[in-house]
Design a protein that fits this description.
The structure holds two protein chains of two kinds. Chain A is α+β, with helices and mostly antiparallel strands. Chain A has two domains: 69 residues, Alpha-Beta Plaits (2-Layer Sandwich), CATH 3.30.70; 66 residues, no CATH class. Chain A is built from five helices and four strands; from the N terminus they run βαβαααβαβ. In chain A, helix 3 runs antiparallel to helix 4. About 2% of the residues of chain B have low confidence. Classes of the chains: A alpha+beta, B mainly alpha. At the A-B interface, helix 4 of A face helix 12 of B.
Chain lengths: 178, 444
């Protein structure tokens, strides 16, 4: 029963190079539910963690396209259908005059898609995360680098995973409860 | 204190082209290019000069884009682009060639700029003054700027600025190859600021002089920016293709990598979109205000088959490449990016035709088209969509092979000279302080 409440194991590393090589070793060893927590982006980390390509781009493209369609529909419905307005001799629906607003709506919805899509993919917002139980995690915004292996990983084993993370140079290797 | 050199960072990479290698390609490209232009001249007759200007402005854009790229990387102190910068410096070193290639325009300037070359003069050369029949008040008002003497003087001023900047930046960079002095990089970053200012002004006025003045009654303040956007785009496309070709010949391996192509692809895509942005800004304001002296330019480009080309540009210069090059995977794929680059080089040539030929060739007789004299510009464009097939047929009937041939020939000549310069220098700035950053550069 105790295993079901385990969230995962977190190890601390001292440099970008150390966590990069540790990540390579962890994924080479067959772990898949692995993540890195660093104060700044580390070049090549996605590859070392063997992360699949993010699906965020597709969310943004869909939102942008929705913005284009909604803007066109809105301007056609308001100016040329529901209450026809002739402005300075142009057609009620004149495509050149719709472009700036269509562009802005595309940008707006793409921006929303990027921000809220990222929130959704990261399951944000949340008030607490198990990783905050780690004793030195507060240094993640300053000068320490953390590697986590989650308990849902098929290869996860409390003792073996802990030993493995210690063997590749991890400090403060702690088992965290959910 | 000096930075690590190429030999320390990448001992296996060849710093220079092997002695004698690429010499055949260099001579062949220059020879074939010159032969193409000469054939165009022999077969083109009076229309040759407008065709030549199409190719010339397209090719000049590559050189000016290269000069802009060089200064931009210095002023932003960019690290990623160091390995690409020497190519740009050597392409910009083709500007003296472009000065030489300006001679045919000096020879044929009365044909190209026939709308103002004889402004307010009758056939016998006598001046027409205000009040007399045939007096053009607009051109009289512009004559302080648009007169032959000042026009030719400005050619000299523009080229003095461009050749001066290109030579200075290239020579300083070559000097750094010898000394490895990081102070040179700092100095170039400072010089790039006034350099870019001079560049922006000279390019804008050159676009006004050499393209916009073909239609001397018309004016658009954004015109220089639209030319610049297309020029920088075609430079990116050209550089991608040149670098890929050099890589196939065994050079720049491990120096210009997928990461650099990815970034050049981003630039290519961004300036393709920027071209659309500036052109649409120009179009929408003119369409909205609907002033005859402004809309006339678009009316000329809705007639004589050019309506089809306008439509092709909207799709070929925006929608199709926008979707095609949007994906990260396409920009990182050698075949995908090359296809996009070749496509956009051809489209750029069509863009130059659209800017230059309709006004320069107003004396050309077209097949009779459906009358649409009284309709507004928007209706002309909309009915233009329905007329697309017949417009395209008119364009294909009127277009001269030299309208593409001159561009191809001049690009080949420029590439020949660029190769000559590339063979004489190191392939990358071997002792640039940011060389290591460029070699190890990765996109996230």
């Amino acid at each position: 029963m105790s295993d079901t409440t385990t969230w995962g194991i977190v190890a601390e590393f001292e440099s970008p190079a150390a966590i990069y090589h540790a990540a390579e070793k962890v994924t080479a060893h067959g772990y898949t539910k692995v993540d890195a927590h660093t104060p700044f982006p580390v070049h090549g980390m996605d590859k070392a963690l063997r992360q699949p390509e993010s699906g965020l781009g597709w969310i943004v493209v869909c939102c942008g396209f929705t913005g284009i369609c909604l803007a066109q529909l809105m301007m056609w419905w308001m100016n040329a259908h529901d209450y026809v307005i002739w402005v300075s001799g142009k057609e009620p629906y004149a495509w050149p005059s719709t472009i700036p607003i269509t562009f802005e709506c595309m940008v707006l919805l793409s921006g929303f898609g990027a921000v809220f899509g990222m929130f959704g993919l990261n399951r944000l917002p949340r008030l607490h995360h198990p990783i905050f139980q780690h004793s030195t995690i507060h240094r993640v915004t300053d000068d320490r680098f953390f590697l986590s292996v989650e308990a849902t990983d098929p290869k996860f084993d409390r003792q073996q995973t802990k030993n493995f993370l210690e063997s590749i140079g991890g400090k403060h290797v702690e088992i965290l409860e959910d | 204190m000096t930075a690590p050199s190429l030999q320390q960072l990448a001992p296996t990479a060849a710093p220079k082209v092997k002695d004698g290698d690429l010499a055949t390609a260099q001579m062949a490209l220059f020879g074939v290019g010159a032969a193409l232009v000469a054939t165009a001249w022999l077969t083109g007759g009076k229309d040759f000069f407008a065709s030549y200007l199409v190719g010339y402005m397209g090719t000049l854009g590559i050189c000016l884009g290269a000069l802009f790229f060089t200064m931009l990387q210095h002023i932003t102190r960019a690290g990623w682009s160091v390995n690409v910068r020497r190519l740009a410096e050597n392409i910009a070193a083709g500007l003296p060639l472009m000065l030489l290639l300006f001679v045919p325009i000096l020879v044929g300037w009365k044909d190209i700029y026939h709308h103002w070359a004889h402004a307010n003069h009758d056939a016998a050369g006598n001046a027409i003054v205000a009040g007399q029949a045939g007096f053009d008040a607009v051109l009289a008002g512009k004559s302080a700027w648009l007169n032959p003497t000042f026009f030719f003087v400005r050619v000299g001023i523009y080229f003095a600025i461009w050749i001066g900047l290109a030579t200075y930046f290239r020579n300083q960079s070559l000097r750094q190859d010898e000394s490895g002095d990081p102070a040179i990089s700092l100095r170039l970053a400072r010089v790039a600021a006034p350099g870019l200012l001079l560049f922006a002004l000279s390019l804008t006025f050159a676009a006004f002089d050499w393209i916009m003045s073909i239609d001397p009654h018309w004016f658009s303040t954004i015109f220089g920016v639209t030319y610049f956007a297309g020029a920088y785009m075609v430079f990116c496309a050209y550089t991608v293709l040149l670098a890929k070709w050099l890589t196939r010949r065994g050079y720049l391996r491990g120096l210009i990598t997928t990461e650099h192509y990815h970034d050049l692809g981003k630039f290519l895509w961004a300036f393709m979109v920027f071209w659309t942005y500036t052109n649409f800004s120009q179009y929408m304001l003119i369409w909205y205000a609907n002033l005859p002296e402004e809309t006339l330019w678009f009316k000329t480009r809705a007639e004589g088959g050019w309506g089809a080309i306008g439509t092709i540009l909207v799709f070929g210069h925006f929608f199709i490449p926008f979707v095609f090059l949007l994906s990260r995977n396409v920009k990182r794929s050698s075949v995908g990016l090359s296809i996009g680059a070749v496509f956009l080089v051809v489209i750029h040539c069509i863009d130059m035709q659209f800017l230059i030929l309709p006004s320069a060739r107003e004396h050309v007789e077209h097949a009779p088209a459906a009358p649409h004299g009284s309709e507004g510009i928007a209706q002309a464009i909309e009915s233009g969509l329905a007329r697309f097939p017949s417009d395209l047929a008119t364009y294909l009937h009127d277009v001269h092979w030299a309208d593409f041939g001159c561009f191809a020939g001049l690009i080949a000549m420029l590439t020949g000279v660029a190769l000559w310069n590339i063979r004489r220098t190191n392939l990358v700035p071997v002792r640039d302080p940011r060389l290591a950053e460029s070699i190890h550069f990765q996109n996230f």
